[in-house]
């Protein structure tokens, strides 16, 4: 989809689900991703949103940035509430209280609300097979409360609770592979996306919403505040992450893997790491270590794509 | 901007002055089926699926909602028997024209039409619904006019020859509602499938990262249009510093 470059942006939906006036930081990748996703979802949507940047920045009382029905819920139960919304709509349609039509139930959460705190509610909702879409906006730490590490924080990143210094290199564990965990539930649609590839993202969100049964899209959202890079580099950082293989874009449809962007040669991970302040302390050895790990994971993914 | 009040299916609706019935209805969450309408392209009202009944001064008439501008106090009905009869007849013809298009099949299901009354066994192309969105997008958005309207012959495909002016941008593939036009990149070629043909365009390779990033014809066109140096597109936008 990303091959559409110059003219197609003029044809993108003009409808805005997330309207201007919100309080996201300048250069926020998440705000961009949410805006594109809401364009793809359209008007017939009910959004369930976990605590996090997205909730804080869009719903400061008495204002709201949302053009669609929107529920704020806790960190731990987005999956449960989104499945409840879907069941509630179904029941109301059955009783004839609202006209029969497809209304998307969409859960939105950050990486903390998805991979740490909300994982069991998400897993339950996926297992029960509700017809809903879950969007995880992954900015790789708890950015809303001031950059604390989460299980989605990558190896070597410096955060306020995993600071880099003389004895520590920052985060000591590798990033939790959430799309893989979700794909292991054998749901019809799982994908990874990045707002640096806007048409790919919109296509995947649309596909996820149209899928019968649970769907999950993991969206990589660069965060200038927490990752410590200049605000004008958001799109470039996203592209570097994809081109270096740190965050490959792929989709899993009914168990078969498809790599959306396959580059003839991966860019060195150094390009991606050195652009960000959270990785500035990394030594050459550590960068080599990360490079090897990224290549290994990428190879594993490619093998899966060829097998299925 | 001035707001206009009107009534659609018994619902009071407010919309911007100068917008069309389709836009006002979509804003209010009322669905009107369309095939040839796209919000980014000027409407021509060729598919007529959006036909609605409007009334004022005691008279009523059927108009295409995508071209009809709204007026103060207008009463619009989207699902009267007269309108449904027209739509069913149109869908029946569309089913003859493009039996394999998913949108047409979905519409036929919705309106309870199982099989087209007439069958055309001679036609080659079974998905094109002649909405001419590709023609308009190539003219208005891209400005190349590579795809032409069927001249003279009635009910012909938008074009039957290889388009010489095509720059392989894919706008027509993006906008095509039936999936008749499709585009894919395989290695160093971009393949566009349309009207039973397979057109191939060579892609340019980036001299730094080695990925194929855009069709050569397109880059030539940009170079000429913006008066750029010859080696400007040797590297892809990601590698350019």
Give an overview in words:
The complex is a heterodimer of chains A (308) and B (241). Chain A has a single domain, classed as 3-Layer(aba) Sandwich (Rossmann fold), CATH 3.40.50.970. In chain A, helix 2 (53-58) links the parallel strand 1 (45-49) and strand 2. Chain A is globular. Chain A has an eight-stranded mixed sheet, with helices on both faces. With 308 residues, chain A is of the alpha/beta class. The longest helix of chain A is centred in the C-terminal third of the chain and has 24 residues, at 284-307. In chain A, 37% of the residues lie in helices and 13% in strands. Chain A has helices at 29-41, 53-58, 78-94, 111-116, 119-128, 178-183, 198-210, 224-227, 234-243, 269-274, 284-307; strands at residues 45-49, 70-72, 104-110, 133-138, 189-193, 215-220, 250-253, 256-259. Chain A starts with 28 loop residues before the first helix and ends with a helix. Chain B is of the alpha+beta class and 241 residues long. Chain B folds into two domains: 1-122, Ubiquitin-like (UB roll); 133-234, no CATH class. Chain B is 24% helix and 21% strand. Chain B has helices at residues 21-27, 81-97, 102-110, 133-142, 171-175, 216-226, and strands spanning 3-8, 11-16, 51-56, 59-64, 75-77, 182-186, 189-194, 197-205, 212-215. In chain B, the strands form two sheets. In chain B, strands 2-1-5-3-4 form a five-stranded mixed sheet, with helices on both faces. Chain B starts with a strand and ends in a 15-residue tail after the last helix. Mean pLDDT of chain B is 82; it is low at 152-156. Classes of the chains: A alpha/beta (308), B alpha+beta (241).
Helix content of chain B: 10-25%
- Characterize the main sheet of chain B: 5 strands, mixed
Fraction in beta strands of chain A: 5-15%
Per CATH, the superfamily of chain A is Thiamin diphosphate (ThDP)-binding fold, Pyr/PP domains
